[in-house]
Amino acid sequence: MEKPPRIDFAPEHYINRELSWLKFNERVLEEALDESNPLVERLRFLLITETNLDEFFMVRVAGLKQKLFNDIDVENADGMQVHEVLKKIHTGVADYFENAYQLMNKVLLPACAERGIHLKSAEHLTAAEMGAVRRYFDTEIFPILTPLAIDMGHPFPRLANRSVNLAVTLRRKNKADSPDYFAVVQIPSVLPRLFLVSEKPNERHYLYLEDIIELFSHRMFKGFEVVETHAFRLTRDSDLVIEEDEGESLMKIVQLELRRREKGAAVRLEVRDTMPAEIVSRLTEALELEADDVYTCHGQLPFAGLKAILDDPLVANETFKPFTPIAPFKYDRPADLFSLIRAGDVLLHHPFHSFALVEDLIQAASDDATVLGIKITLYRTGVKSRIVDALIRAARNGKQVTALVELRARFDEETNIQWAKRMEDEGVHVVYGLIGFKTHCKVALIVRKEANKIVRYVHMSTGNYNSATARIYTDLSLITVDKAIAQDATHLFNSITGYSKLPAMQKLSTAPGNLKALVLKMIRREITHAQGGKKGRLIAKMNSLVDREVIDELYRASQAGVQIDLVVRGICCLRPGIAGVSENIRVRSVVGRLLEHSRILVAQNGGDPQVYLMSADWMPRNFIRRVEIAFPIENKHIKEKIIQNILQVYLNDNDSARVLDATGNYSRLRPEAKDAVNAQRVFIDECRSSQEEQKAALAKTKHLRKVKNPRK
Question: What residues does the Polyphosphate kinase C-terminal domain cover (predicted)?
């Protein structure tokens, strides 16, 4: 197939990656602002925006600042230089803090108060409450506090990343001419941020930990008068720099970098709006920050301090109505899964389909005498894992078990190291992947001997082997015994665990390798169809779209008349709706109670649709620096389900979807209630309906058994 002629697009045809991410966080904040969401969920969304922003500064902003430090101020595809991007980030984040604190102070906290949950200030404590607070300070807080003086003999301390601290100004008692002294007290992260001061029926009163410490701060500085105290919070560069060396253990390198993480350069300072300018200046200078690195907060910081309210019994019912994931088919015991999978490919749509089925499959393999080996990639497993427990049991049962554990899964490194050590101790063969690549694909391979033949069961997914995220992330996975896919999966594992060069694949596409080429090929084929007078059509769903070459190819497809619908949850650097460039491209982002995480690509292919699921987003890092897979969906019924019952529902969403326009802004479609289509709600309702049908069928079966055997 001939490659279309090269067309260079202008900088204004691209959206800046970092600014697009800020727009995504705005959409999450919209969920906290949405009055139709329950109170606890609105608080939860607010906390999520803060966690998102922390990671954004620890990784992305830190990287940009490092570029400037190294005198790298190059233009991006969008034409913006690094210093310009940082300036716009500051403006956007300052707006975020303004909006978020207004929401907290004017809406969410008053709503909590209406329900009996009160955040008290120290001056409003009753005598009984003051006594309770004093006892708590004496017994739990004071023993672990460490006041840190700052002067010529005491340099500014190395404060922990994301720590909340008190800046304390002091004067010597009984000395009118005493100069001001300065100290810092770090708020202990091992204690709850909210202390339950008192409670009575339908009423509970909390006090912030830092307010308690401020109240008794004079106890830490004998002989001094505490003039004023002000809270501040620090964020540091926390991206690991892994210099891989074939002669060094990757685990040791990652462990060393984790110790260095807390010592990264400061990248952000959050201060209360009550902090005087001279103290802000002193902190900024000590932390080697600029004025644009400082953000003013109009209330307690951070929002994470409100986490205790999420579990408060007075608002326990103000959450989304829960639903129970179902199995796509009935099975009595895990061992039954092998015959059911042999009967035909199985598609799982999480969290509406239970992740327990995947766990049961690995468990069945660990106990089945005919299973010879299990291989699996583990990216984010979570603190508790039935999968890991099953792998350990399989190793104890004498099976060949290989687990590829990605130690560099950002902010999950320590958890993965602990799992890797435990599995190694139990006899699991643990490997850490390819040098220079982060293993991000999600694949499990079970080798079983059946009737003197080897049968290989393959599970592939867009999401992680993590039971916690499987309840709140939307993902798709496929279980198959397809021989070509099984052979490809075997080659994939051999190339990761050994020195084997990855051969040409029959059905899977991989990165590094041909995954990006597959995406480009499918786009170009639709261009050819459109140029030949046929209907060109592409639908894709992903978390992020950043890769410039893919974006350019989508622009060319639009120019050729290909109709393109993209469902991009987060970053999108493509600018849709530009006349002559992208007028045939539509981009929407779905943000709701569940985190959209599935990656899907559908090409019309001249009337014979081609469907792929993949672990990769369309970003340079996924195509170049990660081990990823894309796997085809060949079963006709599963294809139809993905296109009609999943993707089309997202395209019909006019309630939780936001549509991206040519200016880079998102607008929410909010029709009248009777016309609203909310994709996640549709899937949840279908799940509940299927569950009711299963219950009815089970009740009918039990009734028939009683009729057939009345004596029983």
Answer: 337-501, 508-680
The reply to whether 349 and 493 lie within a common domain is yes
Q: Residue 218 catalytic?
A: no
Asked whether residue 244 falls in the same domain as residue 356, the answer is no
Is the domain of 474 the same as that of 538? no
Quote the CA–CA distance of 664 and 12 in Å, as a whole number. 10
d(CA 551, CA 682): 31
Q: Which residue range(s) make up the domain with 268?
A: 13-315
The catalytic position among 13, 90, 349, 440 is: 440
Instruction: Give the mean pLDDT of the chain.
Output: 91
Whether 263 contacts 240, CB under 8 Å: no
How much is the pLDDT for 609? 97
SS3 labels along 65-122: HHHHHCCCCCCCCCCCCHHHHHHHHHHHHHHHHHHHHHHHHHHHHHHHHHCCEEECCH
> Where a domain ends, among 437, 471, 504?
504
Return binding residues for Mg(2+): 380, 410
619 with 573, same domain? Answer: yes
Q: Indicate the annotated binding residues.
A: 52, 380, 410, 473, 569, 597
Residues annotated within the binding site for ATP are 52, 473, 569, 597
In tens, the pLDDT along 318-329 reads 999 999 999 999
Regions of the chain where pLDDT drops below 50: 1-2, 4, 245-247
Q: Which residues contact 190 (CB under 8 A, 6 or more apart)?
A: 144
Q: Is residue 198 located within the same domain as residue 291?
A: yes
In angstroms, the CA 709 to CA 703 distance is: 10
- 134/128 Cα distance (integer angstroms): 10
